[in-house]
Amino acid sequence: MQNILLFIFTLFAYVIKAITGFGNTLVMSSLFSFVTSNRLTTPIDLIFSVPTNIYIVWKERKNLSVKVVVPLSLMLLAGIVPGTFLLKVGTDWVLKSTLGIIIVGLGIEMLTRKSNENEIKKTNPVVLIVIGVLSGVLAGLYGIGALLVSYIIRTTDNKGQFRANICCVFLVDNIFRFFLYLYTGILNKEILHIALILSPAVLIGMIIGVKVDSKMNEENVKKSVIALLIISGTILFIKSYFNH
User: Measuring CA to CA, how many Å separate 39 from each of 16, 62, 201, 227?
Assistant: First the structure.
């Protein structure tokens, strides 16, 4: 039963990934945490993120911006090491409770964000550094770079640019964490075995997501994801905090 749930969660996460270019890790982290440990969820999603981000970056390669990708990638890498250390030594209920709070906060931020499609805001170096490093810590802990999403969506003027830049930054993070997780022992045979079982869900989810993206109103999809994140994050926090 657990494997069936994980398969369904993975499929849904990568439908969202194909549509928006992000969101797979948030969905997987929140839903997987109800049935398994973050020490399993984060490296499993990492294995799937590498090929899917490569695909999206290649598809949107004409929209890549070096000025966006390089500084954010460097800041992200600076925070990954302490985040990975916390993942290895942290208590599971603390990690899950913290993740619940983070997911709710990100959902509220996305819900209340005022989009400005016609104006690319200037980069604030201080904001960039803070967002980059904090995103690195979250990436090391949960594989989440969603703080970068809120930043890049404000500095790109179309969907193609957003997908290209966010997935390229995520890909840099993925490659670095892959070797870091191997070195620290977080990536092991158990992780690879589970990932192999769930890999068809990733492929099916990406295929469905690409088809849905061409027919469905993206704004409605985004609102549904935000609602799911806020609800699941709240439930995850309450369940983890009061049952530890």
Answer: 23, 36, 20, 25
d(CA 29, CA 232): 10
Domain spans of the chain, in order of start: 2-242
3-class SS letters over the chain? CHHHHHHHHHHHHHHHHHHHCCCHHHHHHHHHCCCCCHHHHHHHHHHHHHHHHHHHHHHCHHHCCHHHHHHHHHHHHHHHHHHHHHHHHCCHHHHHHHHHHHHHHHHHHHHHCCCCCCCCCCCCHHHHHHHHHHHHHHHHHHCCCHHHHHHHHHHCCCHHHHHHHHHHHHHHHHHHHHHHHHHHCCCCHHHHHHHHHHHHHHHHHHHHHHHHHCCCCHHHHHHHHHHHHHHHHHHHHHHHHHCC
pLDDT digits (tens, 9 = 90+) for 167-206: 998 899 899 889 988 988 889 898 999 999 999 999 999 9
Greatest extent of the chain over all pairs of C-alpha atoms, in Å: 49
Q: How far apart are the C-alpha atoms of 131 and 100, rounded to whole Å?
A: 19
